[in-house]
Design brief:
The chain is built from no helices and 28 strands. It has 327 residues and is an all-beta fold. It has a domain of 114 residues: Kelch-type beta propeller (Neuraminidase, 6 Propeller). The strands form 7 sheets. The protein has a 5-stranded mixed beta sheet with strand order 5-9-8-7-6, with no helix packed on it. The protein has a 4-stranded antiparallel beta sheet with strand order 1-2-3-4, with no helix packed on it. Strands 10-11-12-13 form a 4-stranded antiparallel beta sheet, with no helix packed on it.
């Protein structure tokens, strides 16, 4: 699959948009200029949404044109955030605690909220040619944002300053960095293209390349209970590790739809969501999956745990609820 068609989250009708040109230099140290605010829309929760995260009891989802929507009732109803200082596409969101969160997106923007997602200010702008795809925070101080063509940057002061760093070398230096995640008290990972996974055992200071037994793009990953890990991506591929990410085995999921989001529920059920309305569940720690296709067949980008028996899913058609099958 060519880089021009690589998934950079879930954007427009095919969930693949043309990636921005390579970032040529480090971000400027001066504060970014003021940005236009996102549009207000009555049907904002139906806009294309690419990321979702929990902020205490609240769900926060981000997407196209700087849209941010909030739900305080486990995804049953949504409202648009009061103020978001960007119209750039937002691709991912994470929260440090119930009030402090970060979102990243096109134009290298990093958005920050201090009130649980009600208002967002521009924290940083890495450059117009930068596409950020994922953001992760270890704690209130240390965070990493990654994106297209090997772009990566980190903060150690809660987002006040960001510094770019290299992840790969040689042929791996400009791999698209699709998602960053960590195992509890364990390694840090960046899921990338071309069957490549980057692994760090020193909180991101240095990185080693792990070659997966699959040469396609990996779009996401997550920690599993018991110390395991799962990565997932193109053409229905999911790969599981039981040794802290040193080795990986391909797990059949019963579909060729690409996976773009996943999580593990409190009861140990693993959920994957992806293109074509695909939703897969595993009750055995990711050793096997049962996959179904939602009737709307809308592409899904991310998933969260809603009320008991329900999932909060976001994607091309906005935010929705998905009922899990009975055990």
């Amino acid at each position: 699959m060519t880089r021009a068609n690589l998934r950079i989250a879930v954007a427009c009708a095919t969930l693949a948009v043309t990636l921005a040109a390579r970032a040529e230099s480090a971000p400027a140290p001066t504060p970014p200029p003021p940005a236009a605010a996102s549009f207000k829309a009555a049907l904002a929760a139906k806009a294309p949404l690419l990321g979702v995260a929990r902020a205490g009891p609240r769900w926060v989802a981000v997407g196209d044109f700087g849209v941010v929507v909030l739900s305080d009732d486990d995804g049953r109803t949504w409202r648009q955030a009061a103020s978001v200082a960007t119209r750039s596409m937002l691709t991912a969101v994470t929260f440090v605690d119930a009030r402090t969160g970060f979102a990243v997106g096109h134009g290298g923007v990093v958005m920050q909220t201090a009130d649980g997602g009600e208002t967002w200010t521009r924290n940083h702008a890495a450059g117009a040619d930068v596409v950020l795809l994922s953001v992760w925070f270890e704690n209130a101080d240390h965070g990493i944002a990654v994106g297209a063509f090997g772009f990566a940057m980190a903060t150690t002061d809660g987002g006040r300053t960001w510094k770019t760093f290299a992840v790969g070398e040689g042929d791996d230096h400009d791999r698209h960095l699709n998602a960053v995640f960590a195992l509890p008290a364990g390694p840090l990972f960046i899921a990338a293209e071309a069957g490549t996974l980057f692994r760090s055992t020193d909180a991101g200071r240095t990185w080693a390349v792990v070659r997966l037994p699959y040469n396609g793009s990996v779009w996401g990953g997550m920690a599993l209970s018991g110390g395991g890990a799962l990565v997932f991506g193109m053409r229905g591929h999911a790969l599981r590790s039981t040794d802290q990410g040193r080795t990986w085995a391909d797990v059949p999921t019963g579909t060729d739809q690409s996976w773009s989001g996943g999580l593990e529920l409190a009861d140990g059920t693993i959920v994957l969501v992806g293109l074509g309305g695909a939703v897969a569940t595993s009750a055995d720690g990711g050793r096997s999956f049962n996959t179904m296709i939602r009737p709307d067949r809308q592409a899904l980008s991310a998933v969260g745990a809603g009320a008991p028996g329900q999932l909060v899913v976001v994607g091309l058609a906005g935010a929705a609820l998905h009922r899990l099958p009975a055990p």
